[in-house]
Structures are given as structure tokens and as C-alpha cells.
Amino acid sequence: MTIYLKLAWRSIWRNKRRTLITISALVFAVIVSVLMQSLNRGSHELIIENMTHLQTGFVQIQDYRFQDEPSLDNSFFFDESLEKEWLAIDDRIQWVLPRIETFMLAAIDGSTRGALVFGVEVEKEQNFNQLKDRLAEGEFFRKDEYAVVISTGFSERTNLGVGDTLALIGQGRFAMSASGLFTVRGIIDHPLPDMNSQTIYMPLPVAQELLSADQMVSSVLIGLETDRHTQSVADALKNGISDEELAVFTWPELIPELLELLEFDLVGAYLMSYILYIVIAFGFFGTILTMTLERIKEFGILISVGMGRGRLAITLFLEVLVISILGVLVGAAGAWLLLYYFYLNPIELTGQLAETVIDMGWEPVLPMSFAPDQFYSQGIIVFFIAMVISIYPIYKIFSLDVIKASRV
Amino acid sequence: MAVIRTEKLCKVYNPDTIPVHALRDVSIEIQKGEFTSLVGPSGSGKTTLLNMLGALDMPSSGKSWIGDVEVTSLTDKERINFRLHNIGFVFQHYNLIPVFTAKENVSFIMLLQGVDPKTISERADELLEQVGLGDRKDSRPSQLSGGQQQRVAVARALASEPQFILADEPTANLDTKAAMNLLDLMQKMNEEQKVTFVFSTHDQRVISRARRVITLVDGALYSDKEQEPKIVLEPK
Asked: Is B114 left (phi over 0), alpha (psi -120 to 50) or beta?
């Protein structure tokens, strides 16, 4: 094999300029393609990260009726013993976060606004999603205080600030009346724009009392170290939870529309990458075509003196492969450096573009994904292109008329 | 036993349209140690016959043997492998691998044969010494003169320890001095090592060195004579 590799390597560098141009084209393709994909996936990962940490959890346990009818009537009993029981089901479960949530009317001065009220255990939320760190103003409430933390968007909509009083009116469990006055202790910047405009957090026991749902929760979020374990932990919980009225959902099951939207968004990026690769593939093919045709006589001679067609085809395949590998490696290294920079310093959008992005429900930043599979997926694509392109020289070798070739 | 034997070799190009008879019933035998020239005017079938003898081309009819192997019955793959182990080639345009050094060009055939690296290195050095290029073994073809390249080609042809060497117009691109040196070299190898050479040529310098001259005219065997080799210099 060494001799074929040596022959391939030296043949590649017969025309240095041409080879360098071809490799540069591949490098360019890999960098642009990785960047495009990284931009898309980066924003998607951020959305999913925020969704799983602040809204759905990786896995969520609900009353089986809650998904179709999200009412407090479909909440379920939850206490510390249940928490311990669930934590024991799988040691990959790191956090168990009980929540009670409902829509209420917030009355401020002479007007009312709809609000999404969450009763939460702040310390547990902090461990899982660093909720406290998102405070823009003020502080978080104590465990049993009649106080709330509102989101910045809601604050802007209602002109409420820290220290103001907020009246909440709504319906509790089994149509019980629910109302109360709460002091605004803090304002948080919620990263999910939809939620930022309407969210109110309050202590879980206070929310349970307000909603006549003592020790009841509407959902329990399961926090994991990584999304990789989502499905297997969900399966373990399904098997481990004895209460038949409880259902276990993974986050993709809870937000399928979002996933479809994200996948649809990726199609554009993939399409651009494919177009780019088609252009590059033709350029690459041009080089290989020239490299093959200008050496037809040489191939004829090599076969004449006894080099098997298979061996010669291996050599030519190695030439294509080496050019591809060089292009991919240099391209991947370049892309890695660029991504690393942008990963640490995400590009922030400003002006109208930022507003448009916010309107679409996304954060106005261009975060880059640093997922390793982006690099090797590009490698696989270029390798596939090389495979397809190498068909030509291989075909040429196997169909070569030695006599005619030697006369060229 | 003859090194090469052909029996009524015929080659017809374009048999279905305008048939061109390149070879007509050519039957010859070449014994080990011969120094033979295939001569004839352009279009007489020299190269076609040489291609048949080298198992590069297949006849339209007739048979040929190299040693005791009927090469006309071999498949393309078998013929390639057969050539690797049994036939040495020297081409008009040298046709060395441009990206390899002289030593690598000579070693390449042995590598294809699967000879062990130590033997390859020793034999390549020895062959390059024999052709007078022991001090140029690390030069690439582009760094060698035409005559030197053709010497490397001879060393390459000898590397596989073939039954015979086919040389197609080996001196056509060489000046007189280089051509004479090459012919001296080949003659010496023929006389001392009993290497069998078959040339296709119309170069008088080569023809005069041959001990046997086979003449083809219009694809048919015209004459087959033995002669006393002599050195013919280029007219001034």
C-alpha cells in the first residue's frame, strides 16, 4: 500500500497550483457549510435548551388527562416521599421540580392583563435552570411569602416595578375562586420571548393555597445532566411509576410543533450546503478529470508493464481521497477555530432584525453550535463526494484500451 | 523450447466495416538469447506483432505462446499478471513514472511482483550500476537525458527478470551517441547474460546490431534472416 500512497501523493503534487486550488475550494466549502449549519443549529440548541430548562424539563410527569385538558382539575398529589421515590428510579435523574401553573388575570390600576402563573420551588429551579441568575431587578421571594417575581415583558406591559402590588384573580382547582394581593419582589429577564411577556413566578406553597390545590402540582419536571439520556430515563420512569393516572412525556413529545418548525428551518441551510457542495463537486471533478485525461498514456504504460487495473484504480482513488482528506481536515480546523470564537462571542442582533427575530419567538442572538458531529458530518459529505468522483478515474482505468492509451 | 512462438497470427481491424489486415498468418519462433529485429516499412505490422508478442493485444485468429503458456487464451487480468512476471518493455518515449526517481522506477516492478524490500533495493542498485547510472539513482526522469532515461527503462525492463525484453523503437528519440551506448548496453546484456531482446525498428543502427532480422511487409512475413552483427555509424 505504501508504494500506491507514494505514487498517489507525488502525482497529486505534479501540478501544485491546481491541487492547491482544489483543496482551497474544499476548505472553503467545509468552512461555509459548517458555519451555516452551526448558525442554524446554534439558535436551535439555544431554543431547545431554554425550552427544556425553563418550560418542559427533559422529561415531564403529568396527570394523564393534563396534556389534553391543561386544567388544575387535572393536577396530581406530590410530596417529598414521591420525590424520593422518583429520584431512586434512575440515578441519572438529578432534579425533580414540581410546578403548578395556571392562567390568571392580573389587575393593575384600572386594567387587567392575562398572566401565566407558576408556583415553583426556587432553590430547585435555581439548581436546574439558574432562574435566580436571570433576575434583572430586585430579588426572589422567600419560600412562603405572598410575593411574586414577574418577567420583564410583563413588567413593561403593566408598568409594574419592584415593590408594587399586584392583584391576581382567577379560578382555582374545581372552580374555586382564586384571588390575592402580591408584592412584586423582583423582575427576571426570561429568555423565551413568549413567556417573557406574561410570566409570574410565586412560591409553590403559596400558589397551591391560592388555587385551592394543597400539595397538588400540575406537572413535575425531571432534570438531567444531558439530553442524551432523555428517552431512556423516560422509559425507566414509565416502568417505575406505579400510579397509572400519571403519564411520562419526553420534551419532544411535549413540543412537537416547535421541533417541526426547527427542522423546517434547517431545510434551508441544508439546501444551501447542498448547492455549495454541488458547485464544489463539479470543480473537484474538473481537477480529477484533467488529472485522469492527461495521464492516459501513463496509465496505459503502467498496465502494459504489469500493474493490475485494480492496483492502478486504488492509486487513483487514493489521489482523490488524499485531496479530499486534506480539504476536509484543513476546512474542519478552520471552521473549528471560527466556531470557537463565535461560540464564546455570539453575535448579537440589533435594530429591526432583532425585533423580527423576537417577534418570531426567538432570542436576538446568533449563537453558534459547537456540536462535534457538524465537523465529521461535513467530512462524510466530502468523502461521499470523493467516492462519487472517483468513479470516473476508476471507470476509465477499467475500460482503458492499453494499446490506444499507449499511443496517445 | 522457444521463448516465443506464434502460429498463424492474424489481426484485422474494423472487420465489420472496412477491414484492415494488420497481420496475416504470421508464424515465428524466437529462441532464448536471441537479439532480433522486427523491421519493415510503416504500416507493415511491426508494432501490431510486437503488441501480440507482448500479450498486450489479442489476435483476430491464430495463437501465440510464451514459454509453455498460450497467452492468446488468457484473460485481460491474467495477461497483465503474466506480463509482470515474464516480459520486459522498453518504449520509444521511455515512459518512466515521472514522479519516481530512477531507483524507484526500477524498484516499482519488483514491488508489484511482491519481492521483499531488501532484495528490491539491492537489485535496483545493481541494475542501475549495470546500465551506468549508479550515481543518478535519486534523479527523477526530468533530471535525466533521453539516453539516460532509456537506460533506466532498460533497467526497469530487466528488474522483473523477464523471459525476454520487447523494445519498440528504443533508439528513435536518441542521438547517435546515446543510441550507440544503449545498443552497446543491450548487446552486452544479450551476450553476457543471455537476455533475449526483440526490437521493432526501422533504425539501421539497431538492425545492423541484430543477429536475426524478421521483415514484415503488408502484415505478412516477408523474410526471416540471420546475420553477423556489425556497428553502423550515422552518416555524417
From this structure: left
Within a domain: A390:
yes
Nearest CA in chain B to A311: B112
Q: Chain B residues within 8 A (CB-CB) of chain A?
A: 51, 54, 56-57, 76-77, 80-81, 83-85, 87, 89, 91, 95, 97-100, 104, 108-109, 111-113, 156, 160
On whether ipTM exceeds 0.95, the answer is no
Q: Looking at the structure, do residues A319 and A204 belong to the same domain, yes or no?
A: no
Chain B residues whose beta carbon lies within 8 Å of the beta carbon of residue A305:
83-84, 89, 109, 156
Give the DSSP per-residue string, B133-164: -GGGTT--GGGS-HHHHHHHHHHHHHHT--SE
Same domain, A398 and A278: yes
Q: Are residues A185 and A89 in the same domain?
A: yes
Partner residue facing A403 (CB), from B57, B76, B98: B57
Q: Among residues B236, B232, B190, B221, which one has the least CA distance to residue B36?
A: B190
Q: How confident is the model at residue A51 (pLDDT cuts 50, 70, 90)?
A: confident
Kindly report, residue by residue over A71-100, the tens digit of the pLDDT. 999 999 999 999 999 999 999 999 999 999
A342 assigned to some structural domain: yes
Question: What is the phi/psi pair of residue A37, to 5°?
Answer: -70, -40
Please indicate whether, in this complex, the C-beta atoms of A306 and B83 are within 8 angstroms of each other.
yes
Which one of A173, A207, A223 terminates a domain? A223
Q: Is the pTM of this model over 0.80?
A: no
Q: What percent of chain A has pLDDT over 70?
A: 98
Of A3, A304, A309, the CB nearest to B111: A3
Please check whether residues A42 and A163 belong to one and the same domain. Answer: no
Compare CB distances from A402 to B56, B77, B109 and report the shortest one's residue: B56
Q: How confident is the model at residue A363 (pLDDT cuts 50, 70, 90)?
A: low
Average pLDDT over residues A149-176: 93
What pLDDT is stored for residue A359 in this prediction?
Answer: 61
Q: What's the pLDDT tens digit per position in B143-181?
A: 999 989 999 999 999 998 899 999 998 888 888 888 888
At A205 the pLDDT is 95
**Residue A251 is assigned to a structural domain of this protein:** no
Write out the three cell numbers for B135: 550515481
Per-residue pLDDT tens for A276-300?
Answer: 888 888 988 988 898 899 889 999 9
d(CA A251, CA A266): 19
Residue B217, SS3 per DSSP: strand
Per the structure, the complete domain to which residue A204 belongs is given by 59-223
Question: Do A211 and A264 reside in the same domain of the chain?
Answer: no
Kindly state whether residue A198 falls inside one of the protein's structural domains: yes
* Shared domain check, A200 and A82: yes
CB pairs under 8 A between A and B: 58
Q: Are residues A269 and A208 in the same domain?
A: no
Within 8 A by CB and 6+ apart from B148, the residues are: B133, B136, B139
Regions in chain B scoring below 70 on pLDDT: 231-236
Domain closes at, from A201, A223, A245: A223
Q: Are residues A278 and A370 in the same domain?
A: yes
pLDDT band at A47 (very low <50, low <70, confident <90, very high): confident
Strand segments (E) across A225-297? 246-250
* Total of domains in chain A: 2
Instruction: Looking at B54-116, list the stretches that DSSP marks H as alpha helix, in order from N- to C-terminal side.
Output: 76-86, 102-113
Among A6, A305, A308, the residue with its CB nearest the CB of B109 is A305
